[in-house]
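dumping this here so i dont lose it again. seq + smiles for magnesium ion
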Amino acid sequence: MGIEVVVEGLTKSFGKQNIWQDVSLTLPAGEVSVMLGPSGTGKTVFLKSLIGLLKPEQGRVLINGVDMVNSPERKIMETRKLFGLMFQDGALFGSMSLFDNIAFPLREHTRKKESEIRRIVMERIDIVGLLGAEEKLPGEISGGMRKRAGLARALVLDPQIILCDEPDSGLDPVRTAYISQLLIDLNAQIDATMLIVTHNLDIAATVPDNMGMLFCRNLVTFGPREVLLTSDLPVVSQFLAGRREGPIGMSEEKDAATLAAEEVNGYGQGISSANATRTVVPQLEPSPGLPVRQGALRRRERVMSMMGQLPEAARTAILDSYSPAAGGGRL
Ligand SMILES: Nc1ncnc2c1ncn2[C@@H]1O[C@H](COP(=O)(O)OP(=O)(O)OP(=O)(O)O)[C@@H](O)[C@H]1O
Ligand SMILES: [Mg+2]
């Protein structure tokens, strides 16, 4: 079963530039979470902070009791082995075949025999649907295939926590749908704790158990997916609707004057009427033949016990999703 990741009061700056401050959240064990946020809000910086590659100035990231921010480097390195990270750009070595790229962490971090390495690598290549492409170089395959190769490489050390940085970037909608299903199937098969960073609204709507959003140097919200999907916070509804009108501007937040002008022009009303019609689509189920997601079972218990603290719209959406008519009876 996956491992819980507890983030407490995390603050990160580069020089004078504060990226985000006081971020606290818990990634529940074995559940799938998504972090949304406009470009440049520090999503990649957040992922790198979780595995100790970047050092926030304040706060803690606790994994099995080890603080990935303040522990000695040796301890951090050891705990980092629990993670699989799929980088935004794939980060494959251009001169190595896909096979060698995917085998790299095994050759680097284990003493496994070459025959054992081959078995593991081919199994992961199969999971991500790249059988037959293993001898190709990264430059000879499509962006989507490079993404999947990056995911296969993230999986070879049997990670209990998987971080995916924009698994969809550069993919067409059909390939994005495949990768969404792949992530859910993966979760069903290995019960790892997963965090996916994306701005893709289809992934946000169909994949996660939990969802959060970074904006304006803060974590706007983090919790059960239904909370964000039914939220009427202007920044959330603007993002989910992909509108220009709202607090998000071309280079992060708009100034007060621009916002006031939009208000006068009646955009504010447009925003609230759009909210009224927003519906929560069902979450993806694992493909036929795969086990039930243990994370989903635990999540149901967990969310039911916190119902009292959730906004009305989120409560309704959660109860709908667990009603037998929605297929929730299967769980
Ligand atoms: N190593 C670094 N040194 C200095 N500044 C950095 C460093 N890494 C990131 N930044 C800055 O931190 C901010 C957030 O960057 P980050 O890459 O995390 O954004 P993001 O949310 O992942 O954006 P995108 O959606 O475009 O990938 C940016 O302003 C970036 O310039
Ligand atoms: Mg990024």
